[in-house]
Amino acid sequence: MGALALVVFAVTTLLFLIWFIRLVRKNNDYYKDIPGPRPLFFFGNVFEVSTTRDILNVMHKYALQFNGLYKIHLGPVRKLIIASDYKFLECVLSSMKILNKSEDYLYLRPWLGTGLLTSDGPKWKKHRKIITPAFHFQILEQFVEVFESGGNRFVQQLQKEVGKKSVDIYPYVTLCTLDIICESAMGISINAQFDDNSDYVRSVKAMCRITMERLFHLLEMNDVTYPLTKNYYTQKKSLNVLHNQTNSVINRRRKELENKTEAINVTNEDKADNNDTLFGRNKKAFLDLLLQATVDGRPLTQEEIREEVDTFMFEGHDTTASAISFAIYCLANNADVQAKAYEEQIALFGGNKSPAVTYSDLQSMKYLELVIKETLRLYPSVPMFARKTSEPVQYENIFIPEGVTVNIFAYGIHRDPKYFKDPEKFDPSRFETVDGKLPYAYIPFSAGPRNCIGQKFAMLEMKSTISKVLRNFELQPATPTHTVQLAAESVLKSANGVKIALKNRN
After folding, report:
1. Which residues are annotated as a binding site?
2. What are the subcellular locations of this protein (predicted)?
């Protein structure tokens, strides 16, 4: 009996090795025309990146070495194509054959389901079509009041830090953008800036952290072993809070719309339990538009609405916070740029620190828009994003089979001297002469059919918040000198904070 078991084990092992060797050889054939760094036997290139702070430097080094297109090995079988070559990016981002997201986005599905960010195929196309009208300028104009309200609370919080030699502004900014996105998406105020320890705020932070950590921890990568980890139970608790909150708001708003009420009459009890605010007689939160939308002639289901609201919450929270934080950092460390941006504010509002800012005013902030664009070039909120081929693709002499992950390295092409002179220099004026002939060289919001649907919303929010900071504070470098340590997490962050100094403007 023992001998038979030994024979079975030996035969099984041999068959597995034969299958594995064939798989490796087949995989190598797919990528044979794409160069890349030499891999370590079995482990590939995984040891070159020990922390999230290493990722961008290592990838950028190889992008320059291999002219923007190379492969890296993640273990013995899995490989990724890393792309910051313009022609290749144009091929990928403009293609209707490479629209699906990679497996890495699956870690978001427990929270976001198959909303617009994570869905593929027919569902993505249908939902993209019905959500697009929500970002028409007439709708966006209604959100300016929300941006201004959140920004006022932000300025109030920053006043506590005036006079200090160094303050990390990132935690303040994230709470500000969370306030704004909650009110824009669901029409509720969670007062995150004054209550950063609420269950909802803590749950959002926990899910953003867990989503990224699952990419790097062996036990958490696999759904089979994930329940053995602490994060699994933290996630269950957090999702319960997040989904219950979203479902509760959806149910109540659905009932109000069914009763044909145009405004939310909040009772004292509702205020105590939910701290909801009235959005306004003629204004609609993102949720209202979803409740009135149809797909294939039917209303969206409760789950579909929750997925899209939660997706909007996720995408419009950390990404915008990253951009605002780095923009304020750049302004603090470039006095000449800050002076020009402040002069624009003076031209629009005189010395009024708290004017009634309109949509038209935000559109008129042309120089501030250049500052934001240059910030997003150097510090793209999403420095890389991945697509997966749903069918074979031919690019010049390179054949890419179905099921291959292509990593779009936005950070790399943004700092490529072929497309941006003196790429490490912060120079907003470079965007004064951009003619649009190379649309895939600047991709902070992606590009092509799957570009960011909320980019106009984000630009307005960033202008509103940053302009308010400029009018109220003189931004100065932190003391001692602070240089951000970039880390590629769920969004681009600084491992050592984003530190500046604040001085009240006269």
Report:
1. 452
2. Endoplasmic reticulum membrane; Microsome membrane
